[in-house]
Amino acid sequence: MTYITKPRLHHPLLVPNGLGFTRRDYEGKVSTLCAGCGHDSISAAIIQAAYELDLPPHRLAKLSGIGCSSKTPDYFLGNSHGFNAVHGRMPSVLTGANLANRELIYLGVSGDGDSASIGLGQFAHSVRRGVNMTYIVENNGVYGLTKGQFSATSDPGSKSKRGVVNHDQSIDLVGLALQLGAGYVARSFSGDKAQLVPLIKGALAHKGAAFIDVLSPCVQFNNHVGSTKSFDYVREHNAAMNRMDFIEARQEILADYAPGEVELVTQHDGSILKLRKIAADYDPTDRISAMSHLQLHQARGEVVTGLLYVDPESKDLHDHLATVQKPLNQLEDRELIPGSEALAGINDSLR
Amino acid sequence: MTRISAVNDFVVKFANVNGSGSASANGMFAKSILRMGVPLAARNIFPSNIQGLPTWYEVRVCEQGWLGRRGGVDLMVAMNPQTWDQDVASIEPGGYLFYDSTKPMPPSKFRSDIEVIGLPLTAICNAAYTDPRQRQLFKNIIYVGAIAYLIGIETEVLEKLVTEDFASKPKLIQSNFDALRLGREAAAESLKPIGLQMRRSDAVGDRIYAEGNSAAALGAVYGGATVCAWYPITPSTSLAEAFTAHCQDLRVDPETGKAKFAIVQAEDEIASIGVVVGAGWNGARAFTCTSGPGISLMQEFVGLSYFAEIPAVIFDVQRGGPSTGMPTRTQQSDVLLAAYASHGDTKHPLLFPEDPTECFEFGALAFDLADRLQTTVFVMLDLDIGMNEWLCRPFQWDDSRRLDRGKVMTYDDLEAGKDFGRYLDVDGDGIAYRTYPGVHPDRGAYFTRGTSRDPYARYSEEGSVYVGNMKRLLAKFETAKSLIPAPVLQPAKRRTPHGAIYYGSTTPAMHEALAILEAQGVHVDGLRVRGFPFSDEVMKFIEEHETVFVVEQNRDAQLRTLVMVEGGVNPAKLEPVLGYDGSPITARFITDQILGLIRGATRTPVPEVAE
User: Would you kindly state where each structural domain of chain B is located, as residue ranges?
Assistant: First the structure.
C-alpha cells in the first residue's frame, strides 16, 4: 500500500543519531510484501545500519532490478534517490551511476532470480570491475512475484511448494563473488538481525565491491518442509564462521575480549571490523582459504554465514580508471570542453 | 580502342589482400591528391576478416567536388590474384589495368578494350630487399611510386607526406623515399604516362579529411560526455577507440594526470546502455556506440530511458542487416529500429549527419538534446561515413557556447521551496524538472521506476494517471520537433512537381544526381532531412510536390515509412529509391532510378550488384 502515507508522528522514545536523525528518518514507504517476508527484515536491517552509521540519507543512492527484493528500496531510506531498473540489470545501472558521482554511497538490492539467473552476467562483471558498492542479494531460491518457480540458487533436491524436485545445480553467488575478486564477501540470514546489521555497516564502509548474500525465506512459496531455503532449514544448518562488530573510525575500541579470540581488520576509511572467531581455523583475509573452507562446509550441507572475506586494501573501478576526485557530473564546461583553439589544431592535423 | 582521357576526374581502384599493409600506401596515395588541391572521395571496401581475404580501396578524384561514389573504374591496380577476373571485368571500356607482371599471364586473362600496364613489382622487390616482410610492405610503396609517375602526382608531395607520417620514426623516411623512387624509375624506364592525369588545383580549400567515427567521438568530447560504455562491434568500434584517444589528448587533468572521463568496455551491449542510463540518471553525460545488432539488444533499456525520462546518447553506426548481416558493408537500415526502439509506445529523436563535420556537430548537439528532452537520442551514422575518410568542412566551435543541461532543480531551488514534481509539466512543453541524486538532505529525492507513476513520482496504476503521462510524453516529442536540426532545401532551378528526400551518407551522391538530372532537363527539388521527429517543413515540402522520391540505403524504404506514419502522408505520393547492396549508393544509380520513375519505365526493384 505505498499510496498510504505513513503518519509523521514520532514515538517519544525514538533517539536521534549523531546527525540528529531518528530511525524513522531512514524509513521509506509501507512495504507491500507478504506479511512475514524475510525481505522486510533486511529492509529493517538496512535502516538500522544507516541509522547507526549516521549516514546522511541523501548521500546514498539505492538501486535495484525487478522482483520482490527489487521492490524493497521503496520501503527504506525515503530521502535517498532510488532507481528500480530493469530485470537483472541493476549492476550496470549502478556502475554508471557510480561513474557519474564517486562521492555517493551505492546500495544495490537484488534477488536470486535477478542476480543468479537473468542477471548473472552483470553480477559477475560488476564484481570483477570492483565497482564501489554494497550489493545485497535477498536470496529465497524462488521467483515470488510470478508465484513460485525455482530460481538458479535453488539447491538440487530441494522441493517446491507444488512438490516438484529441483535437479539443476545451484549457483553459489558467494563462491562466485570470492572468485571474481570482491573485496568484501558475507552471507547472512534475514532472521538474524544481530549478525546482519554489522555486516551491512561493514559493507557500506568498504571501498570496492562488497557483496552480501542474505538468505531470506519466501513465506508464501518456499518455507515448507523439503525446501533448503526455509526458516527452519536455514536455522538448523546455519554455520556462522564469526561474529562481527562494526566499529567506526572515531569510536574507541574497548578490549572486552581475550587475546586470540578476536581479529581486528581496519578498512581504508579507518573503520574497524571486529571479528569474534567461531570457526577457530577461519581466516577471513585469505581469499583462497575462504574459498576452500566454504566448499568444505557447504559440501556437508551447512549454510556458511558471517564475514567470509575482506580485503581492507581493495581498490575500486575509479582507481583503475584513474578518474579525477571531483565527481564527473559536477565538472564544469571549462573543464570539459577543449575549446576552439584545440579544435583548430585538430583541423590542421587532418589536412 | 579509345582510351579514357581525363584530368582531375577519374576513379582509381586498388585491389589488395587484407593484412598486406596496403592501407597506409593507399592512404598516402589519396592524401597526395588532396595535397595537390584536388578533391577526392576514398572508400575502403573490406571483408569481415583480419588477413587473407580481398579488400579494395576506391579513390574517386573529382575536381568538381562530387564526393559520392561514381561507380565504374578507370584505373584498376590489380594486386590480388583472387579477384583478378572480377577486377578486370569492372574496368570501364578504354580504361587502364595496372598489374604485377613478374609472372606471365595468358592473354585470355586480359581484355582487348582496355590498356594493360605491367610492371614486375615482385621482381623489383626481390632484387631490392631480402626480408620477406619488407618485400611485402615496400611493394605497396613501389606501386604508389609507379602510379604517381603514370598519372602525374608530384614527387615532392609524396615525399612530404612520408616525412610527416614517419616523423616519429625518422629511419623509415629514407627507406620509403627509396621505395617511391624505385617504383617511379621502373615505370619511367618502360612505361609512358597514361590518359588519366593529375594537375595542381586549389579546389580543396580549407577542408579537412576526417573519419565520421572519430569526428563523432570528438563531438562527444566537446559535448561534455564523461562516461562511455561500449562493446566492440564493427563498424562502431573505432568510435569508442577514437573517444579514448581524444580524451587522453584533451581531457586529462594536466596537474594531477587524472582522467576527466570514464570509459568502460562492457560485457555486452545491454550492460553498455545500462551504464549509460545509470550515469545519465546521476547527471553525467554518457553515451554508447554500436551497430544494428547492438541496438536490438538495448531495446529494453531504451524503453526505460523513454519512460523514466533519462538522458542517453547512442551512436548507431549502421551496417548491412538483418541479424549479423554484412558487418563490413554500409546501409541505412536501422531507421525504424531506432525510431521506435523498445516495447510499448515509444519513439525517439534521431539525428542524421551527412558527413564527418556533421558527425562532430551532431555528436556534441546530441548531449544537449538528451539533457533537454531527458530521453535517448540516436545519432545515425553508417559505415560509409563512420569508417571512411571524407573531405569535409573544418570542425568549428563557438567558445561562448554553454552546455545545455536541461531542466535540473538545484539545491537552491529546493531550498527556496520550489514545487518539485519529477513528472510535473510546469512549463507546458511536456518536459519536467529532475534532480540529481544527493542534491538535498530532505527534498528532491524520488524513486525512479519504469512502471506508472503520478506527476510527483508516486506509484500509481490508475489508468487516467498513465494516460496523462503518456500524453505529456507526446507533448515532449512535439517540443523535440523545434530542437532537431531543420531540413536543408536544395532547390531546383525551375519550379517542379518533383521532390526528393534523402539523408545521411546518401547526400553527396544525391547532390550529384540532382545536377546530372538538371543537365538533362529534369528538375527535382531536394530536401535533406537531418533528424526525427520531422519538422513541419518536411511535411510542407511533401505537400508542395506531386511526387516525392525518398532515396535511402535500405530495402524497406524505412524513412519513407516513418514519413508516412508520422506525417499521415499518402503512400502513393512517396516513390522509394533504394540502394542496399552494401556498397555506398551512387549518383548513376539514383539518376537511373529517378529517370525511370519519371519516364514511367519499369522500375528495377533490386539494384544490380555490378554497375
Answer: 6-197, 210-392, 411-483, 488-598
Tell me the per-residue pLDDT of A236-289, one tens digit each, with 9 for 90 and over.
999 998 999 998 887 766 656 665 678 889 988 888 898 888 887 888 999 999
Q: B488-598 maps to which CATH number?
A: 3.40.50.920
The verdict on residue A264 lying in a domain is no
Question: A324 lies in a domain?
Answer: yes
**Residue A152, beta-bridge partner list:** none
Q: Which among A83, A92, A103 has CB closest to B266?
A: A92
Nearest chain B alpha carbon to A26: B442
Q: What is the C-alpha to C-alpha distance for residues B274 and A95, in angstroms, rounded to an integer?
A: 8
Residue A45 in domain: yes
Neighboring chain A residues of B259 at a CB cutoff of 8 Å: 321-324
Total domains in chain A come to 1
Which residues of chain B does A122 touch, with a Cβ-Cβ cutoff of 8 Å?
267, 270-271, 274
A59, A78, A93 member nearest B274 (Cβ): A93
Residue type for position A174: V
- What are the start-end ranges of the H helices in B251-400? 269-281, 292-308, 335-339, 356-373, 383-387
Q: What is the pTM of this model?
A: 0.95
Contact between B224 and A336 using a beta-carbon 8 Å cutoff:
yes
**8 Å CB contact of A3 and B458:** yes
Cα distance between residue B583 and residue B591, in whole Å: 17
Chain A with chain B: Cβ pairs closer than 8 A? 233
Q: Least CA distance to A84: which residue of chain B?
A: B449
Instruction: Look at the domain B6-197 and name its fold.
Output: Pyruvate-ferredoxin Oxidoreductase; domain 3 (3.40.920)
- For the domain B210-392, what is the CATH superfamily, name and number? Thiamin diphosphate (ThDP)-binding fold, Pyr/PP domains (3.40.50.970)
Domain extent, residue A155, equals 23-241+281-330
DSSP-assigned letters across all residues of B495-541: --SEEEEE-GGGHHHHHHHHHHHHHTT---EEEE--EESPPHHHHHH
Render pLDDT for B219-256 as a digit per residue (tens, 0 to 9): 999 999 999 999 999 999 999 999 999 999 999 999 99
pLDDT of residue A2 exceeding 50, the answer is no
Nearest to B447 among A84, A104, A343 (CB): A84
Amino acid at B379: V
Residue A303 domain-assigned (yes or no): yes
CATH of the domain at A70: 3.40.50.970
Picking from A63, A331, A340, the nearest residue to B226 by CB comes out as A331
User: CA B86, CA B90: separation in Å to the nearest integer?
Assistant: 6
Q: pLDDT value at position A5?
A: 62
Using an 8 Å Cβ cutoff, are A217 and A229 in contact?
yes
Average pLDDT over residues A146-171: 91
Contact A100 B268 (CB under 8 A): no
| Interchain contact, B274 vs A59, CB within 8 Å | no
Task: Please give, rounded to a whole number of angstroms, the shortest distance from the CA of B521 to a CA of chain A.
Answer: 37
ipTM for the whole complex:
0.95
Interchain pair A104, B437: CB under 8 A: yes
Site from B226, B231, B251, B422 to mutate, A interface, most A CB atoms within 10 angstroms: B226
The pLDDT assigned to A72 comes to 95
Q: How far is B595 from chain A (nearest CA, A)?
A: 38
User: Which has more pLDDT, B407 or A14?
Assistant: B407
The C-alpha atoms of residue B261 and residue B226 are separated, in whole angstroms, by 4
CA-based nearest residue in chain A for residue B404? A333
String of DSSP letters for B299-318: HHHHHHHHHHT--EEEEEEE
Please give the pLDDT value at position A8.
62
- From the list A81, A322, A329, the residue facing B284 with the nearest CB is A329
Mean of per-residue pLDDT scores for chain A: 92
Pick the closest to residue B282 from A62, A203, A87 (CA basis). A62
